[in-house]
Amino acid sequence: MPDMDVFGALANPVRRQLLEALRDGPLPAGELAGRFALSRPSVSEHLAVLRQTGLVTEEPRGRHRYYHLAASPLAEVRDWLDPFERYWRQHLTALRDLVEGDDL
Asked: Where are the transmembrane segments (predicted)?
């Protein structure tokens, strides 16, 4: 598996859906795989990418493997998105001021 960064991992919609499924808490691999119209090996490959990038951790419990969301790598995404959020906030504020202004 080639090296992949957080952005590359998030580029795939299946991996984003896996992360969304883990927001409410850890789930076993079988339950995660059951949520997709993909083979278990395909879901396993996506989980491996998420593990490699640190977005999930794996916990063995008996015969099952539970996956946990590890959100700290998402800080890199937040830091990258922050200037864009500020850009849009400024432009939407300017639009609001224009619409609500007395100039109309």
From this structure: none
List, for residues 45-91, the tens digit of each pLDDT value: 999 999 999 999 999 999 999 999 998 998 888 888 888 888 888 88
Report helix, strand and coil shares of the chain as percent, to nearest 5.
60, 15, 30
Query: How far apart are alpha carbons 94 and 11 in whole angstroms?
Result: 32
Q: Which residue has the tokens 């997709």?
A: 36
Report the predicted TM-score, pTM, of the whole model to 2 decimal places.
0.75
Take residue 61 and report the two structure tokens written for it. Answer: 């419990």
The domain total for the chain is: 2
Look over the chain and give the mean of its residue pLDDT values, rounded to a whole number. 89
Domain of 53 in residue numbering reads as 1-71
Contacts of 74 (CB under 8 A, 6+ apart): 6, 55
